[in-house]
Amino acid sequence: MMENPKVLYLIGPMGSGKSFVGKAIATKLNLPFLDLDALIEEFTNQKISQLFKDKGEANFRKIEAEMLRKHPPTSILATGGGTPCFHENMEWMNKNGITLYLRTTPGILQKRLLNEKDKRPLIAEIPDKQFLGFLENMIKTRAVFYEKAQIIYNQELSNTTVVHDILKHLRPFLFL
User: What pTM was computed for the model?
Assistant: First the structure.
């Protein structure tokens, strides 16, 4: 364990592998893994898609910012794709932990997300023919926030290799 408790915040667009990578890193480092969306669902007793529908994105983002600031001090936390873009969350995460941006191409995201669009409120209604363009635009719009991460990791390898490689990148920063 670390001497100074810190959180590793995993950021990136939906489908970038934050949950997969986060769980694997947490297991390797024997730290708790948390998913911000799951914490929000538990707190509100509603699914994210229902929160978006009932309360709108602006209210969801307020709840998200509050929950971001209420997690255990030593953990691996997968954020939502939009988390860094609202309520000065990116600045807050950089001050309170280590941020790791899982940079992924729109093409990879399209392959990963196409079959689970109905589970994700921001993309559920995007027609398949417009999906790649939507992802390209989303990444371009959010890049200004994502690029503020302390570690930027380009995902070009298999998931297993990614986890091993990321652990090497983390050594000088915190856990090892």
Answer: 0.90
3-state secondary structure of 176: coil
Per-residue pLDDT tens over the stretch 50-85: 998 899 999 999 999 999 999 878 899 999 999 999
CA distance 16 to 113: 9
Q: Which residues contact 137 (CB under 8 A, 6 or more apart)?
A: none
What letter does residue 157 receive in the DSSP assignment?
Answer: S
CB burial readout 48-73, b (16+ within 10 A) else e: beebbeeeeeeebbebbeebbeebee
Which structural domains are found in the chain, ordered by start?
7-170 (3.40.50.300)
Q: What is the number of helices (H) and of strands (E) in the chain? A: 7, 5
What is the Cα–Cα distance from 3 to 47, expressed in whole angstroms?
Answer: 36
